[in-house]
Write a structure and sequence with these properties.
There is one protein chain. The protein is an alpha/beta fold. Helix content is 40%, strand content 13%. The chain has 27 helices and 20 strands. A 6-stranded parallel sheet has the order 11-10-12-13-15-14, sandwiched between helices. The N terminus is likely disordered.
Length: 696
């Protein structure tokens, strides 16, 4: 749309013009195009005004771009939002979610007009930012800026790998693109820089980002804090960059740019679209006021007048507009039917691959998974102490060659994390069939990329770094927990036990902080055998994320002929060994379980009967029946000791009012592990003395 005369910005309501400026149709738009775009804008304005909450400016400015993408390019089927080979659309600028909700309703997803009227209300399908699994058609949870574009990089990696693995000549069963709308805020956040850098390095040409370049953030003009040339930055990353000038309404230019992006063979694409936030609002266009709050009833009326729209109409959808948008249902049904027919032919020609595809789409492991596990998993010698990170490497060496739909890597800590298994090749632009991703020193992007890979529904992703760097990726980890993405977050060097690197690298508070995250399963295995069991659980758990916490230092391998089986790990906590009629319970996790076991031996020598409980996962233990939990931790035994090389927070729920805690109350120190544990009083003697105090 073009403005007949420039829309003036008036200083206050007292200066509202008697007749608002009128916006006339851009020559690139047909009358129906213009009606459709105006409908999108007004649906957003009305929903946000009704809720008296939301972000109207972005939907108003980006409506032409989104309209062009959704009606001319996006391959999707509103009747089947989970069609495997659909294109993905990620609204990284999640505050503009009414733009997406309006499109979902208009194109025929299970999002009603009543849902739009219930924007941001309790129980509605239209929350304040897009939430995966909550609203049909929402591909990823976005809100924290930058997460969407970084997640989309993971989606693009997943598509490239799946295409390399499953496709055969004449059978492109995996062949989709990932489209993103991102704003200035997304591209300011560091996570987008990390992810975009990696996307350019990998040449992810299936990724197309529409950049809403509206020059406004909450504080005001982006010039207050953001003066870089974004286009040149992305060219330096190795992206194909295009610019669409004007006012963001030239749908012919936008269409041409998307066509060119789709034709690009070696690079991801950024389409820089100069828009005006709050386009058409007489007083709020190009201002921060249009970003984060409803326009207000008077301004809504004036804006609709500018659009040539009756201000009295609310949530109005002209019949021809709805019919035009609903053509997406026809195109989608035809597109999916064509793909299904091709897949049927593929299944005839490649039955094993088709069966594997179907099984993966149902989030199932191979048919003979349990037998495969038993045959492949290594047996560990109790006479040979081993770091649990080292045990992890042996488990992956044995198992991963049999699981081609597990893909992952490390944030530049491969030799330390022990995550690159034998025979694997790296995922690169020249080798998209490689299963090992070199994330580089990009923990935050790695977390979001893993989320995007998980959203393929066909792949199980894992990514590794030191536990302390959880802080660098917490935003992505939190979204994984919130959205129940099945991701394996793999953390090694999990405590003061890493030793000489000192307190900057010793994660003492991270157990507590990660356990506080709803939906996250934290597994801290006691030894090599529990590590194998932890990986089995993590691979089987497809309803949310799992975090593994593994040691750098060697720990004893428990002789399982003398104790309970490590298979009990899936119950969260179990009786590892116990005297008859125990007087005190020693609860350990991870590397500290061995201290509890030695303390129990010492107590036995003093005629004190102790039970040792291995508690690798609080979350899994809490899922057990009360009867089971009372068997492991009998309410009648109040003498209890917990030992963990982390802070006490949270442990009182298990040790009770008489219980003792042996662990950390400060940050760590730089010294060999043999000195650090005694230096902080985490010793067998300390556990023994704590047990006696608890019994007193």
């Amino acid at each position: 749309m073009k403005v007949l005369s420039l829309i003036p910005i008036f200083p206050g309501p007292e200066n509202v013009p008697a007749t608002s400026p009128v916006i006339v149709r851009d020559p690139s738009q047909s009358a129906l195009d213009a009606q459709c775009i105006t409908t999108m804008r007004c649906l957003s304005i009305d929903a946000i005004q009704k809720a008296n909450s939301g972000h109207p400016g972005m939907p108003m400015g980006m409506a032409p771009s989104a309209y062009t993408l959704w009606t001319k390019h996006l391959r999707h089927n509103p009747a089947d939002p989970k069609w495997t080979n659909r294109d993905r659309f990620v609204l990284s600028a999640g505050h503009g979610c009414m733009l997406l909700y309006g499109l979902l309703h208009l194109t025929g997803y299970d999002v009603s007009l009543e849902d739009l009227k219930s924007f941001r209300q309790w129980g509605s399908k239209t929350p304040g930012h897009p939430e995966y699994g909550h609203t049909p058609g929402v591909e990823a949870t976005t809100g924290p800026l930058g997460q969407g574009i970084a997640t989309a990089v993971g989606m693009a990696i997943a598509e490239r790998y799946l295409a390399a693995y499953f496709n055969r000549e004449s059978f492109p069963v995996v062949d989709y693109r990932i489209y993103v709308i991102a704003g200035d805020g997304c591209l300011m956040e560091g996570i987008s820089s990390e992810a975009s850098s990696l996307a350019g390095h990998l040449g992810l040409n299936n990724l197309i980002v529409l950049y809403d370049d509206n020059h406004i953030t909450i504080d005001g003009s982006t010039s207050l804090s953001f003066s870089e040339d974004v286009g040149k930055r992305y060219e330096a990353y190795g992206w194909f960059v295009q610019t669409v000038g004007g006012d963001g309404n030239d749908i012919t230019a936008i269409d041409r740019a998307i066509v060119a992006a789709k034709a690009e063979t070696g690079r991801p694409c950024l389409i820089k679209i100069r828009t005006h936030i709050g386009f058409g609002s007489p007083h709020k266009q190009d201002t921060a006021e249009a970003h984060g709050s409803a326009l207000g009833a008077d301004e809504v009326a004036l804006t609709k007048q500018c659009y040539g729209w009756d201000p009295a109409l609310k949530f109005h959808i002209p019949a021809d507009v709805l019919a035009h948008f609903r053509q997406a249902q026809v195109r989608g049904a035809e597109g999916e039917a064509g793909w299904q027919a091709m897949f049927a032919r593929y299944a005839e020609a490649y039955p094993a691959q088709a069966a594997e595809f179907r099984r993966a789409a149902e989030r199932k492991l191979p048919e003979q998974w349990v037998d495969m596990w038993r045959e492949a998993v290594p047996k560990f010698d109790p006479a040979v102490a081993m770091a649990t990170r080292e045990a992890q490497g042996k488990v992956l060496d044995a198992l991963m060659p049999k699981l081609p739909l597990v893909i992952g890597g490390s944030a530049d800590l491969t030799p330390s994390n022990n995550t690159r298994f034998k025979g694997v090749t790296d995922f690169t632009r020249a080798n998209p069939g490689g299963r090992y991703i070199r994330f580089g020193v990009r923990e935050h992007a790695m977390g979001a990329i893993l989320n995007g890979i998980a959203l393929s529904d066909l792949l199980i992703p894992y990514g590794a770094t030191f536990f302390v760097f959880l802080d660098y990726m917490r935003g992505a980890v939190r979204l994984a927990a919130l959205s129940r993405y099945p991701v394996i977050f793999d953390y090694t060097h999990d405590s003061i036990g890493l030793g000489e690197d000192g307190p900057t690298h010793q994660a003492v508070e991270h157990f507590a902080s990660l356990r506080a995250m709803p939906g996250m399963i934290v597994l801290r295995p006691a030894d090599a055998t529990e590590t194998a069991a932890a990986w089995k659980f993590a691979l089987e758990h497809r309803s949310g994320p799992v975090a593994l916490a593994l040691t750098r230092q060697k720990v004893p391998v428990i002789d399982r002929t003398m104790t309970a089986s490590a298979d009990n790990l899936e119950r969260g906590a179990y009786i590892l060994t116990s005297a008859a009629d125990p007087q005190v319970i020693l609860i350990g996790t991870g590397s500290e379980v061995s201290l509890a076991m030695k303390a129990a031996e010492r107590l036995a020598a003093e005629q004190i009967r102790a039970r040792v409980v291995s508690m690798p996962s609080w979350e899994l233990f809490e899922r057990q029946s009360q009867e089971y939990r009372d068997i492991v931790l009998p309410p009648g035994i109040g003498a209890r000791v917990a030992v963990e090389a982390g802070v006490r927070m949270g442990w009182d729920r298990y040790i009770g009012p008489r219980g003792e805690f042996v662990g950390m109350s400060s940050f760590g120190a730089s010294a060999p592990v043999e000195a650090v544990y005694p230096g902080f009083g985490i010793t067998v003697d300390a556990v023994v003395n704590a047990a006696k105090r608890s019994m007193a």
